[in-house]
Specification:
- The structure holds two protein chains of two kinds.
- Chain A is of the alpha/beta class.
- Chain A has eleven helices and 13 strands.
- In chain A, helix 6 links the parallel strand 6 and strand 7.
- In chain A, helix 4 packs antiparallel against helix 5 and helix 8 packs across helix 11.
- Chain A is globular.
- Chain B is an all-alpha fold.
- Chain B has one domain.
- Chain B is built from ten helices and one strand.
- The chains are: A alpha/beta, B mainly alpha.
- Chains A and B meet through strand 1, strand 2, helix 3 and strand 9 of A and helix 1, helix 3, helix 4 and strand 1 of B.
């Protein structure tokens, strides 16, 4: 098997805390992986270890068959991190030309501009770009060296709906070309349809992994959703045994007994507009899994 | 080789462009030493015709040192801290570009500012101060100015790696201004209280200005070798501090833990 990433008993500790705890796993080439976890779960540390920015306290890491962080590996790896800001007074084309010069076989500057969809803004200063345009430029810079492995940290942050769709389509295209993609994100709804494998991290450990369908099936529950003016706390008080979550005016309830939940809510005269029962979403599966682990 | 030169060229170009497009950096860095020189080295000494050329030469050397300090200290101190904090440096460190290119480009950028400031001072000194230096002396001064950026770049790098962006700007100023004053760059040190004069021995700017003065025959009695080795020693100290700080930024502590195996 051709592994893009191989971790053997990898641990990493900061001065006062253990961020990664003896993780052993292999990620196959040409797949899309999503590393998800709550804040502080160890996602960023794991990515930094894979990028060679941190050295493991113990264990061994191999990226594309080599030690991460070497010049040869850096030529084959791209990364789009959540960068606060690039220098605001540098033009788009200047960044592209600079980053092209770093790699052995970069894409053309026209190709990079096209990928960022910034052809008409090549002379625009970074500080004058919108949030989504900045993200697109960073995405393009991550891919400019035509990498075999690419790390994308919240790639769609600040992008509009149309741009998000195009970016996910581009990520799927990367996979089809044989590139391994490792995503770290909080937006599980978006990655659900594109990711091959999900790794759920908690307190520096991989608590579970699998395809999105496998993770959802593990929970053997369904998701009940409806629109309600009632607060999350009120609904939760009525259903203390179930995971309740409200986003906007939409209520989500993960349950293994949808009929019983509906009956309870009816009994308490809770209006349920647009009521639907569907298989559990990845978001709810994630909440269930991490809550289960915590309890 | 071609790609190395090309990357270095682009890296330096962008660093310079970023600095040149920041008037808040360019104007004080270039104008401040030149204006101070015009005031203290030219206009203030015009009523002393018997010694005005000597004073103009003396102040020209001191303001050349003062002028090279700011771009070197700030381009490394404040700018490295900003770039480290914003993630720009991180993106470069993740690329295949060796870190040394980044440092070299920043040094070249500081050198470019140094050359511009020095040449401006030479021209004003010649045109308005009547300072007559031969080509060898001018070349020696220019080489000294270029090489003289090294200790300040290293000191700036240490500060840039140690402090946050906001703190680094303030602390670089705290280092820069007293260092210039205590080295006698604004006021000859013999006019300062005796206990303050002793600090000059510890400052690279003092030794650099003494080397510059020696180049034009205005040395103050100590051998040029003495100042050269003092400067070299300081470079080594700053290099060690910068290397220590660089290592500290990425350091971590080892701990053991239990095994978990997952194969995907």
């Amino acid at each position: 098997m051709n592994w893009a990433v191989n971790l053997e008993q990898v641990s990493f500790s900061y001065t006062n805390s253990e961020a990664i705890r003896n993780i052993t796993c292999q990620l196959a080439s040409g797949n899309i992986y999503s590393i998800i976890g709550e804040n502080g779960a160890g996602k960023t540390t794991l990515v930094k270890l894979l990028l060679g920015r941190l050295n493991p306290t113990s264990g061994h890491i191999s990226v594309l068959g080599h030690q991460p962080g070497t010049s040869e590996i850096k030529n084959q790896v791209g990364a789009m991190l959540q960068v606060g800001s690039l220098p605001s007074n540098i033009r788009v084309i200047e960044f592209i030309q600079l980053f092209r010069s770093y790699y052995h076989t970069p894409m053309s500057w026209q190709g990079a501009l096209q990928l960022a969809e910034l052809e008409s803004q090549k002379s625009t200063f970074f500080g004058e770009l919108s949030g989504g345009e900045k993200q697109r430029l960073l995405f393009s810079l991550a891919l400019i060296g035509q990498p075999k492995l690419v790390f994308l940290d919240e790639p769609t942050l600040g992008m509009d709906v149309h741009m998000r769709r195009r970016l996910w389509a581009r990520i799927i295209q990367l996979k089809q070309q044989g590139t391994t993609v490792i995503l770290t994100t909080h937006n599980l709804h978006e990655v659900e349809s594109v990711t091959d494998q999900v790794l759920i991290l908690r307190a520096g450990e991989v608590v579970t992994h699998g395809t999105p369908s496998q993770l959802k099936a593990k929970q053997q529950r369904s998701e009940l959703r409806f629109v309600s003016e009632f607060s999350e706390a009120t609904i939760r008080a009525l259903l203390p045994m179930f995971a309740v979550h409200k986003a906007g005016n939409q209520i989500y309830i993960a349950t293994d007994d949808a009929a019983n939940v509906i009956s309870i809510l009816h009994h308490h005269n809770v209006p349920m507009q647009g009521l639907s029962v569907s298989p559990l979403s990845l978001t709810q599966a994630f909440i269930d899994i991490t809550k289960g682990e915590l309890s | 080789m071609k790609s190395v030169v090309h990357t270095l060229f682009l890296e330096t170009k962008l660093d310079l462009l970023s600095a040149l497009r920041t008037p808040g950096f360019v104007v004080p860095a270039v104008a401040f030493p030149v204006l101070l020189y015009l005031f203290f080295g030219i206009f203030m000494v015009q009523d002393k015709p018997q010694s005005s050329v000597e004073i103009s030469t003396y102040t020209m050397i001191n303001y050349m040192v003062f002028g090279l300090m700011a771009p070197s200290l700030f381009n490394f101190g404040a700018h490295v801290a900003q770039e480290r904090e914003s993630g720009w440096l991180e993106l470069k460190l993740l690329s295949p570009m060796p870190t040394v290119y980044y440092l070299f480009a920043k040094s070249l950028s500081a050198v470019a500012f140094t050359v511009v400031i020095s040449v401006l001072l030479f021209v004003f000194a010649w045109l308005l101060g009547g300072v007559q230096l031969d080509l060898l002396q001018l070349t020696a001064l220019l080489v000294l100015a270029v090489v003289g950026t090294v200790p300040f770049c290293l000191l700036g790098l240490t500060l840039g790696l140690k402090f946050t962006a906001k703190a680094a700007s303030a602390i670089t100023n705290l280092v820069f201004l007293p260092m210039a004053m205590l080295s006698g760059l604004w006021l000859p040190i013999f006019l300062m209280p005796e206990f303050l004069q002793q600090f000059a021995w510890l400052l690279p700017s003092y030794h650099l200005s003494q080397l510059g003065l020696a180049c034009v025959g205005l040395g103050q009695g100590y051998s040029g070798y003495f100042h050269f080795f003092a400067l070299l020693l300081m470079c080594l100290v700053f290099l060690m501090l910068a290397a220590f700080q660089y290592k500290k930024v990425g350091s971590h502590e080892k701990k053991a833990s239990s095994l978990k195996k997952i194969c995907i």
